Amino acid sequence: MTQRSFVAPIVVAASVLGCGAEADSPSLPDFSEPPTLTDINPDPNIVEVELVAGRATTEYLRGKPTEVWAYRDGAVPSSKGTIPGPFLKAKVGDDVIIHFRNELPADETTIHWHGVRLPPQSDGTPSTQTPVLPGADFQYRFTARDASSFWYHPHVRAYDQIERGLYAPMVVTGGPTPDVAADRYIVLDDVKLDADGHLNEDTTELDRMLGRQGNVLLVNGQHAPVGLRVAAGSRERWRFVNAANGRYFNLHMPGARFLVIGSDGGLLAQPYETETLLVTPGERYDVLVTFDGSPGDSGALETVYYDRGHDIPDPGPQDLLRVAYGAAAPTQPAPLPEVWGPAPRLPVTDATLVRPFVLSEYEQPGVPVLFTINGEQWPDNKPVHVMRGDVEIWEVRNDAPMDHPFHLHGMFFQVLSVGGGARVPDGWKDTVNVPQSSTVRFAVQYDPPGMWMFHCHILEHAELGMMGDLMVMETE
Ligand code: C2O
Ligand code: CU
After folding, report:
1. Which residues, including other chains, have CB under 8 Å from residue 244's CB and lie 6 or more apart?
2. Closest ligand relative to 281 C-alpha
3. pTM for the complete prediction?
């Protein structure tokens, strides 16, 4: 094993850009969220939008423009692409129609609505649609069934297209609503930049091995840390998604309290308090943050070390959001709801079929690293065939000395156990971290019929083979 030699470039790249040198910078960018897509349909129960993918320019480093790919609102004639892309908002029960146009000059693409339960023909994977050619259109359509936080992104060469900026938040509202001073979506990412601000386009062996880790952390597309003002003593709702190719965010905020109220599939039955919250690529968490403090105090949301394997070095805590506490809120937040989400209770017994999946990585000197599921490397894999309505247990064993966040399309699952001492995630999940050299078991009920992908959400790993297809067959 030669992982040690992989370590140096990350550290060097970070210091070239002088990350951390701005710890005392007086003017941080203000926290901001992308614009909301225009709903062009007057029917209150239909959300109909026009979405365009194309080239755009952003400024991750002040004064140094970066050429990116970005989504923009096609219903606003002069709109510019933003990172993250425009916010898609709907409420439970809405019909959502997306008229998508690919204005990338030379690349085909698709859109996957990560976590959304929808018909397979709108799932946006190469297993369910022909990619949208440059200049072509495609219409995605689904009914919003679950109140939660989602995100959308391409599913063609995702490791490259997402890195270039194609990703955006989506929220479906409905159900119990805690009283909060603000409801924010915080999209976490990182990006690998050259000193002149250009995206570094080399994919190194280290990038392939770990998933590309950038040298600049991004909060809603802005160079972290960003600044945010809150009312002292107030409570806000922060929805997090990790949109990075490979980086894990382990969130911690001294002086504030985290109450985790929701995850991928919506509100938990039982919210829980935590000091640190691990958000692995693809996952979402919905957190109530209470700022115990006085006007004039300040705090920082930071990401702290988490050992995801292969001796990735600890850069120390890194600030994502610097929070200034302003005047106290005029009123105390109202008491929290007594009932939150339904607990997933799939009927699992000793007789439930257990389906084994093994995640492996292969390293040999001089040969690019490759990743497999059950010894198969996508796209040369055979789909797993199952019957609609069946409940089964997936036993996902990670053979590798590195964590893999495992994502299943089309349906939520209920995590039963996690090896390695990690917390068993509550609620409905579509992405779960499988810690290095350990096993995760989850229960799932297959529905709807169709072809659904499952894969590691470290995007380089998926592209290098750690991806499969699940064929849910209609019962006769
Ligand atoms: Cu967000 Cu198949 O992925
Ligand atoms: Cu992986």
Report:
1. 188, 189, 190, 211, 213, 214, 281
2. 1
3. 0.94
